[in-house]
Each structure stands twice: as C-alpha cells, then as structure tokens.
Specification:
This is Cytochrome c oxidase subunit 2. It is found in: Mitochondrion inner membrane. The protein is built from four helices and ten strands. The chain is α+β, with helices and mostly antiparallel strands. The strands form two sheets. Strands 3-2-1-5-8 form a five-stranded mixed beta sheet, with no helix packed on it. Strands 4-10-9-6-7 form a five-stranded mixed beta sheet.
Length: about 230
C-alpha cells in the first residue's frame, strides 16, 4: 500500500500494473526530452542575435512538423498494447462477482456452489492492533496467486467503482449492468483499494481488501467457507 509522502506508484503486484508503471516512466522520459529541447531552444534564441537562419529555416520547420508525429507514435503504440492487454480475458481460473451497495461490497465466488459474503469496513473502535484504519474489512477477498482472475462488477443502488491500485484494476459498478475485468497477482500479500466513485455520505468507508495466497491455502479457505 502507499506510504506517507510517497510520490510514485505503489509497488506493482500484477503484470498489468507493471506495464502501466513502465509506460508512465516511458512517457515521462519523452516529456523530459521535449521540455529540455524547448528550454534549450528558448535560451538559444534569447542569447543569440536573430539571423536569417532563425527567421526563415525550411529544414527546421520540416523537423518540428515531423518530430511531434514520431513522438505521438512512440506514445500511442505501447498505450494501445496495454489497453488491449487490460481488455483481454482468456480462460480465467476463477470468476468473482463484486456487487456494490451503500456502503459495503458483496462478493460471490460463482465457481462454487454456495460461497458468498458481505464485506464491511471495520469501525475504528473495533480495529485490531496493527491493522489499517479505514482500510480493513471484516471479510477479505481471498484469491490464488499466479492465477487469472475474472471479476464481474455491478451495483445494487447507485454508482460505485471497484479499484485496487497495486493491481492496476479500476472498474465502474453500474446498477443493471455487468462490467468485467481481470487480474493476476504475482506474489502473496494483502492489497488494499477503495470505492473510487462518489456514492453518498459514506463513500470513503467502503474499502476493498484482496488477500493473495498460494493455491493450497485458497483451497483450504474455500472448503472451510463452503462446507
């Protein structure tokens, strides 16, 4: 999760988030190169006297017409690749349904016969020692790591948004509509998220907690709940 005074992204815990962080760094390097070039040209124009080379230069006009097009291509290609990867859902090992309510989440493991639960934020007076305030819930979403997970998101009342930054996942929950996305956790751990759509007075009190575990732990957990 994020730390105090953190300027960058959270540590990536899924392949999609790793790609997003790399693209962010790539775009920043391109922006840095453009700003450096523009600053250099401005200083050069201020320090040098105007001449025929600076007033009328066909070669320079040709370069600064073609160069932005090349920059846009360098930004568009990896961006389109990531968009395709985020939209691709190929034979998931587990399907999870998240239903947004005011102000809690309901989760259904559709691959199991009877495995569903409500997930409420733990109030601060009841919070166990060492847990995070406003982020911990009474029932975590447990998923097997290194397995493709499909999540179907909807809402029961108003607009919500199911978002977990470290997984690179953010999907709107809309009443009467099913949206879906997928993710793969690359390591065991506990990942925190929150509703990212203003949904009423207690909008900031419906956190999301994903617990990524090895497959054998997930099987034990699911068997204990469904039995």
């Amino acid at each position: 999760m994020a730390n105090h005074s953190q300027f960058g992204f959270q540590d990536a815990s899924s392949p999609i988030m790793e790609e997003l962080v790399e693209f962010h760094d790539h775009a920043l390097m391109v922006a840095l190169a453009i700003c450096s070039l523009v600053l250099y040209l401005l200083l050069l124009m201020l320090m040098e006297k105007l001449s025929s080379n600076t007033v009328d230069a066909q070669e320079v006009e040709l370069i600064w017409t073609i160069l932005p097009a090349i920059v846009l291509v360098l930004l568009a290609l990896p961006s389109l690749q990531i968009l395709y990867m985020m939209d691709e859902i190929d034979e998931p090992d587990l399907t999870l349904k998240a239903i947004g309510h005011q102000w809690y989440w309901t989760y259904e493991y559709t691959d199991f016969k009877d495995l569903s639960f409500d997930s409420y934020m733990i109030p601060t007076p009841e919070l166990p020692l060492g847990h995070f305030r406003l982020l911990e819930v009474d029932h975590r979403v447990v998923v097997p790591m290194e397995s493709p997970i499909r999540i179907i998101v909807t809402a029961d009342d108003v607009l919500h948004s199911w978002a977990v930054p470290t997984l690179g996942v953010k999907t709107d929950a809309i009443p009467g509509r099913l949206n879906q996305t997928s993710f793969i956790t690359t390591r065991p751990g506990i990942f925190y998220g929150q509703c990212s759509e203003i949904c009423g007075a207690n909008h900031s009190f419906m956190p999301i907690v994903i617990e990524s575990t090895p497959l054998n732990f997930f099987e034990t957990w699911s068997s204990s709940l469904s039995s």
